[in-house]
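User: Predict the structure for this protein chain, please.
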Amino acid sequence: MIQISHKAKQFLAVVAKLLVVAAAFYFIYYKLANDEALKSGLFLEKIQNNFSWAAIFILLLLSFLNRLLEIIKWQNLITTIKKISIGEASKQVLAALTLSIFTPNGIGEYAGKALFYPKNQTKEIIFLNLVCNGIQMVLSILFGIAGLVWFNQITKIISNTQLLLAFGILIIIIGLVFSLQKVAIRGYSIQKLFEKLHSIPQKVHRKNIGLAISRYLIFSHQNLLLFVLLGVELPYFTMMAAITAVYFLSSSLPAFQMFDFAIKGSVALLFFAPLGVEDWVPILVTTIMWFLNVVLPVVIGSYYVMKFKLK
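Assistant: Here is the predicted structure, written as structure tokens:
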């Protein structure tokens, strides 16, 4: 077996960190350079005309709270292994986010967090990150389905009979999944997953759910605020129905984090166009949301990636 010297390992680690940060910034640059709203000057024009300093402050505050709640979620879950400070949790979450920006469906985040822990804890870290992200996905599904039902009652895209049929099929699929919970594939089964979930203290689960709900409400209302600032005047529940439906459908599609804005923008057009909203509005909203909740945290996370020391 070829042995790599300590200095060689350090050099390779530096090269790897530089490549990760360079790739992250390249993807951000690619998005900013190819966004039609930015190239047309629409972005700056609308910011100058529609956004007061107070509005910008509130939007930045919501982005900060959104990421802070994610950090606290991780700090809460990782207590099942060890207690870490909010600063350490911030470092792990933001560095992992930077790694996830150019990986499919953000899977780089799992590897990113695992790098901060001993190799024998990798499976445990991946499982806890699955729990951390899983609760957000569950909420996205629940709120999204409610949003779709409400939106359909307004627009009547499909009949109530078709809607009930769709729910019936969904219930049958869920029933089949639970009936096969003991079936194991390569030693893994749904039953074992539930047993693993039950091994986490209930107070940790309760806090995780509470933080996840708070985070969902923050970024969905940040989205709502942007539509209002850009002149969209629709009833509150109609707006929230469309927003939750967009997040549900867009999060169900496989994609790289760097293309997340494009997917959300395309899906948003499908829902807001029937409500009479101009096409540029949802596209600009998804661009601003991407900048506030991905670009800014990745810039900070890049610093933590460069400071990371290989164990």
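DSSP finds 13 helices and no strands in the chain.
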